[in-house]
Amino acid sequence: MSRISSSHEPVSAPLDPDRRAELVASLATVRGRLSDACADVNRDPHTITLVAVTKGFPASDVASVATLGVTDIGENRDQEARAKIAELGASTWPMRELSWHFVGRLQTNKCRSVARYAQVVHSVDRIEVATALADGAARAQRHLDVFAQVSLDDDPTRGGVLADDLPRLAEHIAGQQSLRLLGVMAVAPLGADPDPAFERLATIAARLRAEHPEAGSISAGMSADLESAVRYGATHVRVGSALLGRRTPTFG
What we know:
Helices cover 41% and strands 15% of the residues.
């Protein structure tokens, strides 16, 4: 698979002013929720990274949120991410300011591709994935920031390493020269109160930080449960529908 080129022309279609207005309003709501959640626990909202998860939405939406100041962009699928990067034109502003976050489940055969463009990978849950990402990053002469994904419900279909197996995975990640362990990531169990899950994640994160002091970040919280995640120490929240809405997606 070829390396992503930065020579493409930027997205040529004009940004839809009505769509931009929708995004302005939804972003204000999301930022208000984050601000209120931080105020409740005496946290500074500027310490939290808002990752706009644009899976299924067009490159023009990425361009719009970027011009609104959201420059951390999350994608779940490698093929879709690469297509958007190519369409947007990586050398143009504000596209050159973007940080691409891969937040979906990752198979080893996609790691070399993801390592060419992602700045952050949130979903490293197996030693094989960490090794493949490290190899891909080294080949591309890059470094990647990664989160170790922890399972909070022991459901293998949703990804995540068991808490008891996290130390071994974290040690492996920390030993890769082309990877930097940021901390832990998790998804709250479906249909359950997220507070107990994120409280447990905070405890797991503290244990990891005791062994790896540089790994102090927590990626947790999505559109429905970001307040709970903030309450228990999230430093990165991954927001899709609350920001982009539930429009008919362009991709997938």
